[in-house]
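The instructor's notes for this session suggest beginning with a concrete chain rather than abstract definitions. Hand out the sequence below and ask the class to guess, before any prediction is shown, which regions might be ordered.
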Amino acid sequence: MGFDYKKDFDNIDFRKHPEKYEVGRGEQGLLMVEPYKGEILPHWRFKTPDIAKESSEKIYEMFLEYKEQDDFVGMDMARKYLQMGYTRARRYANYKGGKKYDKDGNVNERQINEEKAESAAIFEEKWIKAREDETYLALKKEHKEKYG
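After discussion, reveal the predicted structure:
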C-alpha cells in the first residue's frame, strides 16, 4: 500500500497521534508531518560541507533526543531529513543547479561538483547511522506491526 497523501496533515499533530503516522518509503511525508517538520526543517542545510556538517550533526542530535523520548515518529522524521540531505546534495553534486532534467524532459549531462559531493557524504554518514540504529529499527518494526 502506498503513502496516503489524502490525510488531513494540516490538522493532525503526529506527536499526539503517532498511530496516524505512516513510515512510507524513503522521504515520503517529510514536508507534511507536524510538529516534526517545524522542528527539523529549519536546521536542514547542505550548501557547503561546513554547513552540511553543522546541519547533519544538529538533526542527528534531534534523532537522539527523540530516541531518548521513545518518539519513533520523531526519529523517523529526523532520519528522513538526513536522507534528504544526502539525496538533495547528491543531486546538486551531479547536476548544475540541481536540475536533472532539461525543459524537454531529457536528462542533463552530469557535471560533478566536489563541494556538494562532500556535503552529500557528510549527510550520508549520519543517515546510515540513524537508519541502522537498533532502537530505531525495533521501534519501526513495532510501529508497523501496530499501525500498518
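Then share the key points. The longest helix spans residues 72-94. The mean pLDDT is 95.
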